[in-house]
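Bug #77: duplicate submission created two jobs. Keeping one. Sequence:
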Amino acid sequence: MIDLHTHVLPGLDDGPADLAGAVALARAAERAGTEVLVATPHISSEYAVEPLEVPGRVAALRAELARAGVGVEIAGGGELAPERAPELDAQALRAIGLGGGDWVLLECPFVPALHLVELVADRLWASGHRVLLAHPERSPAFLPDVERLAALVRRGALVQLTAGSLRGDFGRTAQRYCWELLDRRLAHVVASDAHDARDRPPEMLATVDGAIAARALPRTLAPWLTRDVPAALLAGEDAPPCPAPAARQRRARRRWSFMR
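Kept job's structure:
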């Protein structure tokens, strides 16, 4: 698996406070079957993270994990809050692009500010970047109207769900929203948004498999969400096509919809 959204870099934001905590998080990810962790510290007004420092921090953690014998690769990135976007020039945006590329993880804020997300997405697109929306299932900007999110997807944005939301860690509303996005093929990535090894851990696979089985979705959707699309984004490519449901599954969903 490739985890595109983690707060593994120590001492920068609300992730691990020190190097030992970062190593523990990476070990937990390795045990959970993750091969690549993308470090996406908050680039926001709340945390004084300098984007140009992120690549150096990634390199330092990569070296420490090699010394500690942790077999997880660390890639760079950042979780860009909409209010910080106007401050960043092309060099800063490149420093927090996923894997150093043109895909930017854009945070969906926890306040009703949809117009701001749309404005920043427009600016990123205009500057040649591409947009992966972080955890819209937890954002008041999108929860009232899934069609607003669908409109951004039609324009080229991709959507990242948080594994904890699928588990119900953030409440039933966020969980149901995730299910709707999966059913409508409006979700493209599942990531852990891990902050530590215990309370916000980097666990994804069992959660994604369980959610897909519960929704009678194609089993090939799990690796698409946790490996195929993340790998493409790190390589600076478009997302590969979403697995199509089997004919039997499509007929079953139509019958269930009619019965309801």
